[in-house]
Amino acid sequence: MSFIETRGNDGVKPQEVEFSDAILNPSSSFGGLYVPKVIPKLGEEFLTKHLHTSYKELAFDILKAFEIDIDDTTINEALALYDNFDDSSNPSPVVKIKDDLFVNEQYHGPTRAFKDMALQPFGYILSSLAKKRGEEYLILAATSGDTGPAALNTFKNKEGIKVVCLYPHGGTSDVQKLQMITEDGENLKVIGINGNFDDAQNALKNLLASQSFKNELKKDGISLSAANSVNFGRIIFQIVYHFQSYLELLRQDEIKLGEKIYINVPSGNFGNVLGAYYAQKMGLPVEKLLVSSNENNILTQWLTLGIYDIRGKVLKLTKSPAMDILKSSNIERVIYDICGAVRTKELMEDLNTKGHFEHTKEELEVLQKYFSATYSDDAYGLETIKTFVDEGYLMDPHTATCIKAYEELRENKNLKTVIYSTAEWTKFSPTVLNALNEDNNKYSDREALEAISKKLNLKIPAQIEELFSSPIIHDSVINIKDLEKKIIVFLK
Ligand SMILES: *Cc1c(COP(=O)(O)O)cnc(C)c1O
Hints:
Elements: E1 2-5, E2 17-18, H1 19-24, E3 34-36, H2 44-50, H3 55-65, H4 72-79, E4 94-98, E5 101-105, H5 115-133, E6 136-142, H6 147-155, E7 161-168, H7 174-181, E8 188-193, H8 197-209, H9 211-219, E9 222-225, H10 232-235, H11 237-251, E10 261-266, H12 271-282, E11 286-293, H13 298-305, E12 307-309, H14 331-339, H15 341-354, E13 356-358, H16 361-370, E14 371-375, H17 378-390, H18 397-408, E15 416-421, H19 429-437, H20 445-456, H21 462-465, E16 477-478, H22 483-491
Parallel strand pairs: 5-15, 6-7, 6-9, 7-8, 8-16, 10-11, 10-15, 11-14
Antiparallel strand pairs: 1-2, 1-3, 4-5, 12-13
Helix pairs in contact: 3-4, 3-11, 4-5, 5-6, 11-12, 14-15, 17-18, 17-19, 19-20
The protein binds pyridoxal-5'-phosphate (PLP).
């Protein structure tokens, strides 16, 4: 199947590309994104067939439905990376926490956050393509916490790929930082930046625009790729687990085939819930997609008012930092699907030049056929964590944002809801301990991990425990002005 561009074609890039080209070179005309030309339809027979298959078989068939130009052996080798999860046959288990409320736990992979669900197999596919073509790619990532560790983990020692990962020094949790700076692999470089996440991200943007940097890369025969969720290679794996949620409810006798469910996703860059949108379009019986945000509630504004307005807005640093966002990349793929390329280009240019765009009434009506949205603040999140722990379920602050949507947005209370748990408690343990103790104390990650583990009689997983005794590989913290030089030295 071919992939086309959300903002139309500039006459220079090819009109259509195959999956492999869309993921190796994800930048498309006019700054747009690649999307599948056709969204395949999978009906009830598909669900029936997969009632008794494994997660890998389900994923294989969904990938094949997109007719991607990746051979079966490579796909299977990529899917074998789910063997690194706690339960390889069921990498994202679905757990019941109330009569009508279920949690899809997406954090059972090597870095204990949902990014592994897609980045593990995606990393394998990207590197095997690079290797096969005899090409060398550089992935530049700026991270506030979860993407960095997951990208480093999947690409370490992979041929054809080099990764440079920037993090704001002092701006991540201890666990997140250790996950990055202890990751070895000759092809990895992790650099702390004196500044905040925005500074790191801006430094990266400036680098991508720097002619001297591009010339250096060219000299060394290196091309740029991307591992964030603008890359469709991540999105395709993020469709699978929404089917898995539905199949699990069927297997657990909680729903009948064809019965609709609510899918409720803590959202930032909109990649996770975009996977659910595609799943619904492919035929998964979904009543509504509930989009949960924190106080950076730009997605709530977009889906309730049809306005996206970042003028005068400053990013708030919240207790659910992976959802702290103003410009959410993947809404563009939904807008394309609903409004077409001409209109998408117009709206995205409005956002870039004027800082806002506005949908027509008709466009908003279509959006609201699929999505409902709301947000909650940190106090609500902490209270929610405490309430659920008292009832026997521990969740992280990102997952907790879903509860507000569960309580307020469901119009049909007879239907079941699946919320998505995007991080394990171990990644945000100081916040979780504040919730349990109902205090405001500043705990270190180490202290909080041990206190929670003792209090709730939970084991700290080995992947987290061993971070504290692993050797530190990447100790450089630099000023932004030295970044380009530093990277070029690493690439030599
Ligand atoms: C990345 C992330 C999110 C947001 O996911 P998007 O696909 O960007 O919407 C939510 N929670 C956690 C813990 C994450 O790491």
